């Protein structure tokens, strides 16, 4: 596929299947990075790990709220 020079940055940041991207669960501590084309396989195989990460984060936020409400 030919990419026009003025569209190259947009292609790399949003479309290019070879660009390395962070897992969408990175804000929840998933450190996985891969080519965009390989991310769907990670999301499929890491579902339980991602649920654990989100559950842990929710638990920490719940504790923080309880602590803030008791002060």
| Major β-sheet annotation | 2 strands, antiparallel
**What would the principal axes of the Cα set say about the shape?**
elongated
List SSEs in N-to-C order: HEEHH
Helix/sheet category: mainly alpha
Mean pLDDT: 91
Q: For this entry, what is the oligomeric state of its chains?
A: single chain
What is the total tally of β strands?
2
Overall helicity: 40-55%
In which order are the strands of the major sheet placed? Answer: 1-2
What's the tally of helices? 3
What is the end-to-end distance? 60 Å
Which stretches are poorly predicted, pLDDT < 50 over at least 5 residues?
Answer: none
Keywords:
71 residues; mainly alpha; two-stranded antiparallel ribbon
Can you describe what's shown?
- The protein is 55% helix and 8% strand.
- It is mainly α and 71 residues long.
- The protein has a two-stranded antiparallel sheet.
- The longest helix has 24 residues, at 47-70.
- The protein is elongated.
- The model has no long low-confidence stretch (mean pLDDT 91).
Short description:
This protein has 71 residues and is mainly alpha-helical. 55% of the residues lie in helices and 8% in strands.
List the helices and strands and how they pair.
Layout: H1 8-15, E1 20-22, E2 33-35, H2 39-45, H3 47-70
Antiparallel strand pairs: 1-2
């Amino acid at each position: 596929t030919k990419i026009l020079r003025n569209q190259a940055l947009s292609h790399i940041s949003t479309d290019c299947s070879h660009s390395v991207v962070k897992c969408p669960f990175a804000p929840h501590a998933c450190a996985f990075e891969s080519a965009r084309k390989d991310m769907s396989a990670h999301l499929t195989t890491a579902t339980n790990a991602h649920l654990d990460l989100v559950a842990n984060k929710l638990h920490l936020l719940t504790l923080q709220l309880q602590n803030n409400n008791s002060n």
